Amino acid sequence: MSSTSREAPRRRLAVLNQRAQIELAIERLTRFATFERIYAGQLNEIGERLLRASTFTAYCDCRALGVGKRADQIIAARGAATPTAGRNRELEPA
């Protein structure tokens, strides 16, 4: 078996893995944005902070995988707060 014939399945696997990563990242962002819309008002301060951090992490994963526009659409459609890297200084201990 030549090295060329072994590389083709690896390339297909890499593409498959990337598609799976994108699908997973989009599903995670959709789930967290939905949770944020539905449950944010019912959570305590720590719960809200954890949910925002989870949403932001999933959003960053989507952007890193090249699907940032889709991530923006998910956030807008779910009515979740737009993820930002900044922190709310009122919630941080002095």
Distance between the termini: 64 Å
Structural class: mainly alpha
Could you name the ranges where pLDDT drops below 50 across 5 or more consecutive residues? Answer: 86-94
Largest sheet: none
The global form is: elongated
Question: How many separate helices?
Answer: 3
| Radius of gyration (Å) | 18 Å
SSE string, helices as H and strands as E: HHH
Helix fraction, binned, reads over 70%
Number of domains: 1
Note the beta-strand portion: under 5%
Oligomer: single chain
Mean pLDDT: 81
- Tell me the number of strands: 0
Describe this structure in words.
With 94 residues, the protein is mainly alpha-helical. The chain has one domain (3-78). It is built from 3 helices and no strands. The chain has helices spanning 3-39, 45-64, 68-78. α1 (3-39) packs antiparallel against α2, α1 runs parallel beside α3 (68-78) and α2 (45-64) runs antiparallel to α3. Residues 86-94 have low confidence and may be disordered.
